[in-house]
Predict the structure of Dihydroorotase.
Amino acid sequence: MAQWLIQNGHLIDPANGLDDVMDIRVVDGKVVNVAKSLKAEDADEIVDANGLIVSPGFIDIHCHLREPGQEAKEDLFTGTASAAAGGFTTILTMANTRPVIDQAIIVAGMKHKIQTDSVVRVEITGAVTKGLEGKELAEIGDMAQAGIRAISDDGNYVSDGRLMRAALEYASMFDIPVISHSEDCCLVADGVMHEGCVSAKLGLRGRPAEAENIAVARELMLAEMTGAHIHIAHVSSKGAVELIRAAKAKGIKVTAEVTPHHLCLVDKTIESFDSAFKVNPPLRTNEHIVALLEGLKDGTLDAIATDHAPHAYEEKDCEFNEAPCGFAGFETAFSVLHSRFVQSGEWSLQELIQKMTAGPAAAFNWQDRGHLSEGGLADLVLIDPKKEWIVDPSTMLTRGKSCPFTGMEMVGQVVRTMVNGKWVYQNGKIFRD
Ligand code: DOR
């Protein structure tokens, strides 16, 4: 297998406390040395990373690849190519496919297809309930034995508290987290955006922040009762941050993620009636963003996750009320946050990289990911922190061309991605065996 020497890059590896110009030698899919001034030895290629950031590959613990069944939106190849372009080397795909991933046989089929079609590591989430219908538990034990890394009905809240309790109990037997899409179904009803002044002005039905707060509160109480690990997906409300902070202080086993769109965009954008801004939970207000940022800073929120949720262009190209929720997220995640928070000096680059590498790895106890340690996996990314570019979905590798950051000017971009010691992405191109 190939041997690479990556020289003179600025290595940022928060898990190992590294933040310095260093060289990395990769042999047979493993990081062999991380040190200053390594010799070329038998390297097949010496990569001059002068002026570039070298980071552990990003980990996305929340995305939708749409396979099986909805390949018009995305498939394993287009989804993982898009992930590689965004610097993600491990992603966790959700169960709301067609058929739903609710049986071990479907997990086995997915694993097989992942081996042939994926360019990054894909981990699988199984459903909590059969068909995501919220009525009967899915084959949690069998799916755990088949290799799922979490369970979730993401897209839906599991309204039946008794079922959720049982799911938490089962999941803890297999040492996997339960990921909760926390929005009380009755309170959100058929709302299409955050409930507030803007929804009132536009005459659009609202989804109140309280729907999220109430749903999160139940999950935290059930996690305390069962001792199981609850992970709160795409936290978007101030109240949810406060509840999770208090639960962590009490020792409840809870982790949580936040998305780039909930950190950067507000409900006011919907005055354009552009369905690219339609997502669940909805974009909220500045008051909520301030709380999310505080939650990230103090560790209440462990990770940044994309919730990459591609839809076919024709599906999104309709009236706001009718459009499906969600949009592409892999290829903009790092750049959006770098441009908005690192360039402005509000975050250090180390803080951003921590929340995209060591943070998600620690949240799900994936000890072999999220760091560049000697002897560890060679999953890494090269970033040009000065590269200026404009978001243009037509050049993206995802099939989901709807993106709320379209037309925005970015500073900083992933230029090269390595998975298991192989370069899978470089400057717009994918490489596969
Ligand atoms: O906006 C969303 N879209 N939120 C979700 O939770 C699900 C996702 C999807 O699958 O499209």
User: Anything to note?
Assistant: The chain has 14 helices and 19 strands. The pocket of DOR is lined by residues 64, 96, 154-155, 181, 279-280, 309, 324-326 (CB under 6 Å). The mean pLDDT is 97.
